[in-house]
Amino acid sequence: MIPVNIVTGFLGSGKTTLLREVLGRPEYADTAVIVNEFGEIGLDHFLLEEVEEGILLLQSGCICCTIRSDLQETIRSLQKRAGDGLIPKFRRLIIETTGIADPAPIVSTISSDPLISKHFYLANIVCTVDGLSGASSLASAPEAFKQAAVADRILVTKSDLTEIDILVKIEKTLRHLNPTASIQRSSGAEFDTKHLFSQDVFVSNAEAEDVLTKLDRHLKGSASIQDPLKILHDISSFSLEFPGSIDWIAFGVWLTATLHVHGENILRVKGILNTRESAEPVFINGVQHTMHPPIHMDRWPNGERTSRIIFITRGIKKDIVQRSLHAFLSAADKEYRQNELADLTTFRT
Ligand SMILES: Nc1nc2c(ncn2[C@@H]2O[C@H](COP(=O)(O)OP(=O)(O)OP(=O)(O)O)[C@@H](O)[C@H]2O)c(=O)[nH]1
């Protein structure tokens, strides 16, 4: 399976600068990158040959490709060409979105297209936020706010041009918005590409632990703080905690129904569940409609066997989600106890 990284971020925030670095590094030699236009990325000094219109082979061994009729068709055609030996095989795919694009439909394309999901999986979403002008774009452009809300890694760029108190302020806003994303600074060079691209969020135990540490910090600390930008865009980030074990099937039905009803307004869900069916914790992770296969972690981080879930939503308040989940789980609990009692009675008679 080939990991896919999505690089998103508002206009001029530094996506191309980051990609250029990746494309020049030998450790990313087997990477294919999908960009909107070659012109934007300035590849002249990397170029080895043009394999065909829209596909470039770079000196580093990377393949760079512009989008064809649509993303689905572009990914499928890259995969087919690599299979037919027309371009080198690649082991990673990076997709750069346009500055005003919503990354969620890309996530959905990767996991819902049967041909694509057979070969590719989402590794993570990286979002660049301009340290210098990010505060105003986050305030004025809902797209910029959403890109940061759904990300797993946030790179605050132009730290070399930005005063420290402005950087601290923007990082605080981003932490309130997306408490489980990791946030780094960049000055346009020497990126920590390993952390940004190689640690897969949706499949790794270590990553799940890191997310939980941040989730717990959110539960204990800043959960109740209201950020003015979140109020402006009607975005909430809240965490729920449930003691005791919960019914996995009932939870799954509830989550499916909730995602169906609220659809695009649930931007991110992440959490750890103590389920009746499994001794190990189950880590869940979703972007909008798309839930990724749960990870069965090998141990309980911090030994706390409590289910904890974080939601980032638009226009949906905590008490609505909490009440409906609570009602669902209580009903499943009641049924479980009745069945247990019935089993016991049958056994005695
Ligand atoms: N000094 C400095 N300049 C940066 C940094 N990151 C990006 N830049 C500059 O900012 C400008 C925009 O960066 P790009 O990488 O093109 O941004 P982008 O997000 O790809 O832009 P669009 O594709 O237009 O949305 C370029 O002139 C970069 O050289 C940084 O960390 N420090």
Automatic annotation (TrEMBL):
SMART domains: CobW_C. InterPro entries: CobW-likC_sf (IPR036627), CobW-like_C (IPR011629), CobW/HypB/UreG_nucleotide-bd (IPR003495), P-loop_NTPase (IPR027417), Zinc-reg_GTPase_activator (IPR051316). It comes from the Bacteria. Pfam families: cobW (PF02492), CobW_C (PF07683). It catalyses: GTP + H2O = GDP + phosphate + H(+). Keywords: Chaperone, Hydrolase, Nucleotide-binding. Gene3D superfamilies: CobW-like, C-terminal domain, P-loop containing nucleotide triphosphate hydrolases. Belongs to the SIMIBI class G3E GTPase family. ZNG1 subfamily. PANTHER family: COBW DOMAIN-CONTAINING PROTEIN, COBW-RELATED. Zinc chaperone that directly transfers zinc cofactor to target proteins, thereby activating them. Zinc is transferred from the CXCC motif in the GTPase domain to the zinc binding site in target proteins in a process requiring GTP hydrolysis. This is GTP-binding protein. It comes from Sneathiella marina.
